[in-house]
Amino acid sequence: MAKEIERKFLLSDKSILETSTDRHQIIQGYLSSNPDSTVRIRIIDRRAFLTVKSRNVGAMRNEWEYEIPVEDAESMIEACGIDGLISKTRHRIGRWEIDEFHGRLEGLVVAEIELESETEVVDIPPFIGREVTDDKRYYNSALATASPEDIPMQ
User: Fold this and answer.
1) Spatial CB neighbours of 30, under 8 Å, sequence gap ≥ 6
2) Most confident listed range (29-33, 64-68, 147-151)
3) Confidence band (pLDDT; 50, 70, 90) for 1?
4) Which of 30, 66, 138, 139 is catalytic?
5) Which of 23, 7, 17, 4 shows the shortest CA–CA distance to 109?
6) Residues with Cβ < 8 Å from 112, sequence gap 6 or more?
7) Whose CA is closest to 104, among 69, 151, 59?
8) In terms of Cα–Cα distance, which of 47, 8, 15, 17 is closest to 140?
9) What pTM does this model have?
C-alpha cells in the first residue's frame, strides 16, 4: 500500500500548458465515490488501472493501484453504468501534474504536486493560483458528477 500526499491548486496562467511535452489522455470513472473507499477505473492512453483510495486525512490518504487490461476497464465502465466519466489531458511540468478537463468541465485546470511528507516545503511557481487541497469540490470523484456551474474555474 502506498501513501498519497498531494496538494491541489487552480492554474493562474494556462499558457504554461503550451510548454508541456509530456501529455497523456485520461478517461476515468468511479465504481464508488464513498469518501471512505473511493474506487476508480482509469484509462491512460492505452493502459488501464483500478485504484482504491481511503479517506483523506489532511493532504494524505492510502492508495492501492493495480494495472488491468484496457478491455476489462472498458467493460467495467459499460457494464457498471458509470455515470459522469471524466475526460482530461494530463500535462507534466517538472514535478507538477496539471489536468486540463474536457467536455462539461471544459475550462477547469487543476495542478497537483505529490509530496514526500505533509511538511515538505514546496516552491510555488508563478503559474500556480489558489490552493484547493481541502476543497472537496475539486476531488475527481466529486467532479465526476458535479454540475459545472458549481465548480469555480479560477
Assistant:
1) 38, 39, 40, 41, 82, 84, 141, 144
2) 64-68
3) low
4) 30
5) 17
6) 6, 7, 8, 9, 96, 97, 98, 99
7) 151
8) 8
9) 0.89
**Which set of grid coordinates corresponds to residue 30?**
468511479
CA distance 109 to 39: 23
Distance CA 6, CA 131 (A): 11
Name the percent of the chain lying above pLDDT 70.
Answer: 99
Residue 66 among the catalytic residues: no
d(CA 119, CA 128): 19
Residue with cell 489522455: 25
Instruction: Say how far apart CA 11 and CA 76 lie, in whole Å.
Output: 32
Average of pLDDT values for 82-102?
93
- List the grid coordinates of 100: 486540463
